[in-house]
Amino acid sequence: MSQPARVATTSSNLIELECSACGKKYDASQEQHLCTCGKPLLARYDLKRAARTFLLETLKDRPRNLWRYAEVLPGDPPVSLGEGMTPLVHAKRLGASVGLGNLYVKDEGLNPTGSFKARGMSAAVTRARQLGAKALAAPTAGNAGGALAAYAAAAGMAAVIVMPADTPSANVMECQAFGAKVVKLNGLISDCGKFVAENKDREGWYDVSTLKEPYRVEGKKTMGYELWEQFAGKLPHVIFYPTGGGVGLIGMCKAFDELEQMGRVGAERPRMVAVQAEGCAPIVKAWEAHQSSAQFFPNAATIASGLRVPGPLGDQLILSMLRQSRGTAVAVTDNEMLHAGRELASLEGILAAPEGAATVVAAHILAGSGWIKPHETVVLFNTGTGYKYSEAWQKAFEA
Amino acid sequence: MSQPARVATTSSNLIELECSACGKKYDASQEQHLCTCGKPLLARYDLKRAARTFLLETLKDRPRNLWRYAEVLPGDPPVSLGEGMTPLVHAKRLGASVGLGNLYVKDEGLNPTGSFKARGMSAAVTRARQLGAKALAAPTAGNAGGALAAYAAAAGMAAVIVMPADTPSANVMECQAFGAKVVKLNGLISDCGKFVAENKDREGWYDVSTLKEPYRVEGKKTMGYELWEQFAGKLPHVIFYPTGGGVGLIGMCKAFDELEQMGRVGAERPRMVAVQAEGCAPIVKAWEAHQSSAQFFPNAATIASGLRVPGPLGDQLILSMLRQSRGTAVAVTDNEMLHAGRELASLEGILAAPEGAATVVAAHILAGSGWIKPHETVVLFNTGTGYKYSEAWQKAFEA
């Protein structure tokens, strides 16, 4: 491959932003948040142009982080800490226990700041800096705060992180370490989101709340591109995704659609399984009631702090993607997560976040019921490292 | 590149083991530990044969973990959790503070189990399984225990981890999670090492103590190969390495020698800087006294648990490599580490282990003194994630 060809591959093909509900278009070269109709905007690319260089073969020369997918990401010099390209581990011993011969764990805990949140924040902070933002603010249920604080630090920007007062201590500590301003509220992430919305104009904050700005989902969609690349151009049959805000699930489905439009996959899609906690399961409740949007889940409580999102903004997108992919939604208890975390650790050497452990429980259920066939290729997403949940695991493993 | 050529690259060229001191040779197809003269054995390869396929260009097709360097690693189906290929972050903001334009952080915290120890254990457990071991035992100052426990779990083998009673709680918890047997002793890693040595024969343990088996250093040397690959075939001018047992430093120097023998680099070498804690600095003391071996360091104490190695077995190798590379050795205080950890986090978004933060202190010292020129390419090794040192950082960041 000649050097000029290689250079050409690194340019973005971003055209515009489009409302995910009403289809209204927005200028991507300006700061944009929600559509006037109140729904999230999604980034649109010239995929015909992108397809010229977006090939398994050309990707081999690219940087070993998510910015390797430059054609289908917003441009600009990336704010990068080496996010993405996480291991896809063939979990043979766990697979034997679950009854699946082709079970894989995508270990997102090996991202900077220890979670998949790094992907979204790398993209969001990159764009925010380019668009002239000075101070970034976001609510968080846990890991997103640390990721925003880290990328803001790397970009030399101020960050304000608003979190529930009972967020795990590792999440508070990391935000302080990265020099962010931490605001603790007695409430849930939904209350924290309101706080950001109410104060951002007066304080001059750029609101990085997930789906309220259009680029975090772009960073997260690279999980889908990576599966395609790591499975050598194929997609798995089933994906289990721990679903709080659900943006990772939305992002992956967007990636698969883009891959199809570029001619890299056909119409086949992985069946998407949204995994939630019994103590906060708005998507599962809506799914079981055959609804197209979710109700606010009252008294949300679970040790899987990332799943404690009682009113996800992307509810309609998530539910529609579960339907379209012939997927499903499953709720599991905290106790089941703790047991499954121990199983995953002792069989595969992966210390997962409780959110990741939840997918193991769900896999047992759906393999046991026959919903998954034993030969199917199945991916469990461990969205974060277990080391940030030391308090929870300590109790579980000493018991 | 044709398919057969690709397959050929994945075979090991391991020939034998050789004593690092007296040169005596040993059969690599048998379980081996120390030489009869008491010194560590090192793996030797047919590097002429390895050189045929070991090229920057052919490496592009390889798995994205350390097993991509198959020609110069022991063979066998690897026990892998996706170790290696960690980010090399250009630390521009920290570089401006230190006065170095080409300052990089190699972030080993993004390895499985959150530290560079994963590299050594992936190689050691792979070999131990192949050689028929049933139960693996090792002393640890902190992160090595978790790494051994994780790889043993992935391999379906038993593990016994012997650690000082005051090892950080995250290290105890992870070993329990991975299903290992944990033995806590009132003492230091040297006492734990004695415990393993005294009990291994009776208990039937395979001793995985660093340098007492020849393959952990093989896994760790891949840090040197990665620098060569990430700098596109060049080596940096200076490497700062937090030195407890010092096996990472020994391994990298071994990698550079192998690269030269394969014709991939010339005689030039990075100047190696061993960074230790004031409270446990046997190498620094020996270096400053121009000695070729180190004395046992009494009353070893530091928050950087990985540096709490009062009598490293590889002392002579480390000191000889510092000399040969025209490097040096620097000791820093715990308080300096904590300050530097905050600087690294707030300028670069990297929450390091105190061991990694120690290299920032040392870089300030040696850039300030003129020992490093402002244009030189300098790499700081962050050997582990800061999330496993929550207790230490929490206090530091709240102060």
From TrEMBL, chains A, B:
<dbReference type="GO" id="GO:0030170">
    <property type="term" value="F:pyridoxal phosphate binding"/>
</dbReference>
<dbReference type="GO" id="GO:0006567">
    <property type="term" value="P:L-threonine catabolic process"/>
</dbReference>
<keyword id="KW-0791">Threonine biosynthesis</keyword>
<dbReference type="GO" id="GO:0009088">
    <property type="term" value="P:threonine biosynthetic process"/>
</dbReference>
<dbReference type="GO" id="GO:0009097">
    <property type="term" value="P:isoleucine biosynthetic process"/>
</dbReference>
<dbReference type="GO" id="GO:0004795">
    <property type="term" value="F:threonine synthase activity"/>
</dbReference>
<comment type="similarity">
    <text>Belongs to the threonine synthase family.</text>
</comment>
<dbReference type="Pfam" id="PF00291">
    <property type="entry name" value="PALP"/>
</dbReference>
<dbReference type="InterPro" id="IPR000634">
    <property type="entry name" value="Ser/Thr_deHydtase_PyrdxlP-BS"/>
</dbReference>
<keyword id="KW-0456">Lyase</keyword>
<dbReference type="GO" id="GO:0003941">
    <property type="term" value="F:L-serine ammonia-lyase activity"/>
</dbReference>
<dbReference type="GO" id="GO:0004794">
    <property type="term" value="F:threonine deaminase activity"/>
</dbReference>
<dbReference type="GO" id="GO:0006565">
    <property type="term" value="P:L-serine catabolic process"/>
</dbReference>
<keyword id="KW-0028">Amino-acid biosynthesis</keyword>
<protein>
    <recommendedName>
        <fullName>Threonine synthase</fullName>
        <ecNumber>4.2.3.1</ecNumber>
    </recommendedName>
</protein>
<dbReference type="InterPro" id="IPR004450">
    <property type="entry name" value="Thr_synthase-like"/>
</dbReference>
<dbReference type="InterPro" id="IPR036052">
    <property type="entry name" value="TrpB-like_PALP_sf"/>
</dbReference>
<feature type="domain" description="Tryptophan synthase beta chain-like PALP">
    <location>
        <begin position="79"/>
        <end position="384"/>
    </location>
</feature>
<keyword id="KW-0663">Pyridoxal phosphate</keyword>
<feature type="modified residue" description="N6-(pyridoxal phosphate)lysine">
    <location>
        <position position="117"/>
    </location>
</feature>
<dbReference type="InterPro" id="IPR001926">
    <property type="entry name" value="TrpB-like_PALP"/>
</dbReference>
<comment type="pathway">
    <text>Amino-acid biosynthesis; L-threonine biosynthesis; L-threonine from L-aspartate: step 5/5.</text>
</comment>
<dbReference type="InterPro" id="IPR050147">
    <property type="entry name" value="Ser/Thr_Dehydratase"/>
</dbReference>
